[in-house]
Amino acid sequence: MRTRRILVALDGSPESRAALAAAARLGIPTGAELSGLFVEDVELLRLAALPFTVEVGFASAGPHPLDPSDVERRFRLAAEEAREALREAAAASGLPSRFRVARGRVVPELLSAAGEADVVATGKRSGRGPAGRRLGGTARGLIAHVPSPILVGGVRGLAPGPAVVITASSRVPDVVLRFASLLAGAFRAPEIVVIAGEGGTEPSRAELEGLPVRRRSFPSISSGGVRALREVAIASSVVLVRPEGTAGHELLVALAEAITCPVFVIGPRGLAELLSA
Fold it and tell me: Is 99 helix (H, G, I), strand (E, B) or coil?
């Protein structure tokens, strides 16, 4: 697997640290570089400069003016926290790393940097607000526009459960199964579970590089149905296969919202190049 660089969107939040932990686990087998990027959101700075902008604190619930200099200070503090988190993760996993701060709009800056990365990692939500089920704008933007594999960090700790592949199609491309086997090794999964649409000719059980592969067929894939499956609830990682075109984008987002472990959104075309070496 030609994973030379994993781009990690860092903002100092627990959500981005979860993505960083999963990215480090993925990078260990190939010695990939962890490339951390912290984006100072120019939209927030512009908002803070408006004379009528106020901020309401979670603790005090009282409004006070939002000062651009205060936003700058918070950016610096969060960037240092992100830099230190990256340093610790890289040292613990024995991986090379680099860290960069950019100023601009978050998603466009990440999209610009994504061209140099083999995998792009982000938290389920950005910022430091209360965690919710809905996927954040950064994760949504990356899923919509980046062809390479997208890692959306989970909200629970890494666990040695199965590596799960979810696809609405009845067949799973070979490159997807190869990627799942790599995840199984990186996340210490005891088996691979394929959740796919009904039909197809794949056997219900097979072996892939020494790991059992088990298949479950469903007439239609839905976020609610997937969340109820025990295999997904205890999974170490989940692969969501991106369909061709944009028809299945909202389903991908709904599935990523429902799953609590690290989620990889992939398309077979992007994987073919990644696995070619």
Answer: strand
- Same fold for the pair 5-43+72-150 and 163-274: yes
Q: How far apart are CA 193 and CA 237, in angstroms?
A: 11
Distance of CA 229 to the CA centre of its chain: 21
- Cα(37)–Cα(103) distance, rounded to whole angstroms? 10
The CATH superfamily of 163-274 is HUPs (3.40.50.620)
Task: Give CB contacts under 8 A, 24+ apart, made by 42-51.
Answer: 42/103, 42/104, 42/105, 43/105, 44/71, 45/71, 45/72
242-246 — which CB contacts under 8 Å span 24+ positions? 242/266, 242/267, 243/168, 243/169, 246/144
- For domain 5-43+72-150, give the CATH superfamily: HUPs (3.40.50.620)
Q: Note the residue count of the chain.
A: 277
In the chain, where the domains are located = 5-43+72-150, 163-274
Average pLDDT per 10 consecutive residues for the chain, totaling 277 residues: 87 89 92 95 84 63 72 91 96 96 94 91 69 75 87 82 87 84 89 79 61 81 76 90 72 86 82 63
Paired sense of beta strands 211-218 and 205-208, if any? antiparallel
Beta-carbon neighbour count of residue 91 at 10 Å?
Answer: 11
